[in-house]
Design a protein that fits this description.
Order of helices and strands: EEEHEHHEHHHEEEHHEHEEHEHEHEEE
CATH superfamily: Ribonuclease Z/Hydroxyacylglutathione hydrolase-like
Number of helices: 12
Radius of gyration: 20 Å
CATH architecture: 4-Layer Sandwich
Strand content: 15-25%
Number of strands: 16
Strand order of the largest sheet: 6-5-4-3-2-1-15
Number of domains: 1
């Protein structure tokens, strides 16, 4: 069999979207499994079943945690328990407690800061415990690292340390209060207003995404002639840093073949300028089916009414994208992969309005 790859986006169906991405690829005589995020604990069985059923294995070569949020990291605890795993690629803020201690005025010792950071990020702290017990090697996905065929474009060590320091200014809620806070936010959330807009108009949010989202690992691989970029929940800072580093990794922009729209298609993570840089300028009209220039991949639950944003869908179509989302189930992108029987992607109607 010739070289191939398949990237499968699995649905994380809760009221909030999450990421659970399974990747299998073959280079020469060997094939590998690469998992990026695992959704919630409740959705982990679906990811496990997908790997064992379609990939026919209980072994994973590499697991990547893009960032410490629950909807990306919680489900990986079960994956580490159920499978044999060679490597866990994960950044742990407490590993740098000594370096950032001077910026945390309330803490007099690095050990106390370590304890606090593990409380702030319980889902990746749990992954660390499992990895230690099972002898899984933990490696740091900093800019320039090679995770199999994937090169890490962001974050750089310097920016990551700045983000840890910034987390002190915007502390996470204690784990026990997360559910209460989420319910309150649903009640207090403002109603989104929409405005009619013609082709080419783009309106992104002026607000920035969270510090934790900016910690996201951005990965690039060149497989079977395709340029593949996975972004997690990366914000505009991360996407800018990744674009700046792309030429070093051999990625000439624009011209990405498979592009994950960050944060489930959120409009606080992208801008017109960034999309021009990654995907190219806006076209004069929507391309007909079959002539799209790239595939845009979005993890967005059907139950999540906030994602993907219409502004993001429009912007991807403006640049000739074919959009796949998990709103109606799993989908995959591939080249030379064994047949799966999945229905080919097809764009829906162009949204004639966007968020005000």
């Amino acid at each position: 069999m010739s070289d191939f790859y398949e990237i499968d986006f699995l649905p994380v169906h809760t009221t909030k979207s999450g990421d659970a991405i399974a990747i299998r690829y073959r280079i020469g005589p060997n094939w590998y499994v690469h998992v990026v995020d695992g959704g919630y604990a409740s959705t982990a069985p679906d990811l496990s079943k997908h790997i064992t059923t379609f990939y026919g294995t209980t072994h994973i070569n590499r697991v990547v945690v893009t960032h410490p949020d629950k909807d990306h990291a919680e489900g990986l605890a079960s994956i580490l328990e159920w499978f044999t795993v060679d490597e866990l690629w994960m950044l742990r803020p407490w590993s740098y407690a000594q370096e950032v201690l001077p910026y945390f005025a309330r803490y007099s010792s690095a050990s106390n800061l370590v304890d606090r950071l593990k409380e702030e990020y319980p889902y990746i702290a749990e992954l660390e415990k499992i990895a230690a017990r099972k002898g899984i090697r933990i490696r740091e996905p900093f800019q320039g690292a090679q995770i199999g065929p994937f090169t890490v474009l962001a974050p750089s060590p310097a920016r990551y340390l700045r983000l840890i320091i910034a987390s002190e200014k915007t502390p996470q809620p204690a784990a026990g209060y997360a559910g209460i806070l989420a319910e309150f936010m649903k009640i207090a959330a403002p109603i989104v207003q929409f405005i009619k807009a013609g082709w080419g108009s783009e309106k992104f949010s002026d607000e920035d995404t969270s510090v934790e989202n900016e910690m996201s690992v951005v990965q690039y691989a060149f497989l079977n002639g395709h340029k593949i970029v996975l972004t997690g929940d990366a914000g505009r800072q991360a996407m800018t840093e990744a674009a700046d580093y792309a030429p070093v990794a051999g990625l000439v922009l624009p011209g990405v073949t498979r592009f994950q729209a960050p944060h489930h298609g959120g409009r606080r993570n992208l801008s017109t300028e960034l999309l021009d840089r990654w995907l190219g300028p806006r076209l004069s009209q929507m391309l007909p089916h079959g002539s799209e220039l790239f595939t845009a991949m979005i993890s967005a639950a059907k139950e999540d009414t906030d994602h993907p944003r219409k502004a993001v869908r429009r912007a991807l179509l403006h640049r000739g994208g074919l959009i796949g989302t998990t709103e109606d189930g799993a989908f995959g992108v591939w080249m030379n992969a064994p047949p799966r029987g999945w229905t080919p992607l097809r764009n829906g109607p162009y949204p004639d309005e966007q968020e005000a």
